[in-house]
Amino acid sequence: MSLPVVQYVVPKQPTILAGRKSVGLPGYDLWLHFVDNVHAFDGNIVIERFHDALASTLQIYPHAAGQLCTTGGRWFIQLTNSGLPVEVEDRREELFTSIIRGDWVIQDDLSPLLSRPQPDAAVVNGSASLVRFKITTFKDRTCLGVSWHHTLGDAVALCRFMQTLSRFYQRVEPVFTPPTFDKHEYRTPQPSVSSDFLPLMPHLWVSYPFNELEAKYAEACEDLRNLRWRFHEHHLHALHSMLSANEEGYLSLHDCLTAYMVALLNRSMARPIRMVTNAANSRRVEAHYIASNVAGNVIQNILTGTLPSHMRGIATAVRESIVRCRDEMFLEDWMAAASDLMLTTANAGKSFFFASRPDVMTVNSNVTIDWCDAHFGFPDSSSFFTTGSLKFYFRPFKSNPTLCDGTWRPRNGSVDISMGVPREMKSKLLDRLAFDFETYPLFATAHRTVNKSE
């Protein structure tokens, strides 16, 4: 194993923001942490070609080569066109499986595959890069780690950035139009509006100074284990058919999967889940204050009311909460209140701590995002990995392809789920999942049908 080598890549000029000095960050953009992901492929990444592709991508996303600043209560990204670090490490004497366990999307630890933060470089009002890359070559696979600061944009923005980078690397044109960097500024809410909406924002109730968050999360995860399971497409459709049998209103596959997980937990513990919080993306809401292609954060956390006990009722409650909270007027007031609170908290030198509550399951779904589409010319073997687990924090993703006898088998609509659960609950939940898949009439029938066809 050789020592890592770091080179820096700057945007090609002129960028699409040439002439602008900064990109403003409203309060709702102030998610002040990094998102760490890893993409993996069977082939090798040509470093010089990757550098050129990254320079072209930064020409379209120049804020990623900027620096995070705040002054006088205002936050912004200074467009400095700074070089982004690309770290390269040769580990060809090792197998990819020395780091990655199985093909699960959610892994326990990806730190060896991620670029190290620059020592003594502050993120806020400092020189720290807002995006860092690391390319690690193993005997059998190549990994591309990316650390992306959340103020640059949400999961949709990051995925579009990575797919653009992938396509430039392949020397084909991006499929997405260039993003907009103009952010809607919500009016400062009246105190009565803020007090009305605060009970709907439990994710913003608890905050700590930036330097205390890591210890708080470590403490919260001390006695947790990661529950993982794979739902194949036929299982998801069987579940949807069961809950939609009477055709009393639309339910999505996601609503039904959420309802099943709530019911699974409720069969396994004395104190039931009585509420679901959905971290939802609002880019598809048609409203004057929503830009679907914004390079920013379009995130709304949606609460259900008190859930009923039966699965169909839970799925319906989830769907109704999403429809209700995407009302144009409601969403505008919600975003104004959230943005104001987030700005106040950031200006106090604090960030939000997503504390779990014993009767709430939080959902952060990436099922509509195809991370593996950033494949850099290796579509069959392209895989995606990330980390992160909190108590009853439910995270569904499109599954990775599976390697069987030297051949990559496609995902075919399967979904990986992950959730942090108390240590003593994990085996019980796995047993119940296995039992359901063997005995639940629709699950079992679908399973047998597919096995016969294979």
Write the layout of secondary structure elements.
Blueprint: E1 5-9, E2 22-25, E3 34-41, H1 47-60, E4 67-71, E5 74-78, E6 84-91, E7 131-138, E8 142-149, H2 155-169, H3 191-197, E9 207-209, H4 213-220, E10 224-231, H5 233-243, H6 253-266, E11 275-281, E12 299-303, H7 311-325, H8 328-347, E13 350-352, E14 360-363, E15 383-386, E16 393-398, E17 402-404, E18 407-409, E19 415-422, H9 423-439, H10 441-453
Parallel strand pairs: 6-7, 11-14, 14-16
Antiparallel strand pairs: 1-6, 2-5, 3-8, 3-15, 4-5, 7-8, 9-13, 10-19, 11-12, 16-19, 17-18
Helix pairs in contact: 1-2, 5-6, 5-10, 6-7, 9-10
Overview features:
454 residues; alpha+beta; 6-stranded mixed β-sheet; 10 helices; 19 strands; 30% helix; disordered C terminus
Describe this structure in words.
The protein has 454 residues and is an alpha+beta fold. It contains 10 helices and 19 strands. It has helices spanning 47-60, 155-169, 191-197, 213-220, 233-243, 253-266, 311-325, 328-347, 423-439, 441-453, and strands at residues 5-9, 22-25, 34-41, 67-71, 74-78, 84-91, 131-138, 142-149, 207-209, 224-231, 275-281, 299-303, 350-352, 360-363, 383-386, 393-398, 402-404, 407-409, 415-422. It has a 6-stranded mixed sheet with strand order 1-6-7-8-3-15. It has a 6-stranded mixed sheet with strand order 10-19-16-14-11-12. Strands 2-5-4 form a 3-stranded antiparallel sheet, with no helix packed on it. β4 (67-71) and β5 (74-78) form a beta hairpin. α5 (233-243) crosses α6, α6 crosses α7 (311-325) and α9 (423-439) crosses α10. The chain is globular. The two termini are 42 Å apart. Mean pLDDT is 93; it is low at 446-454.
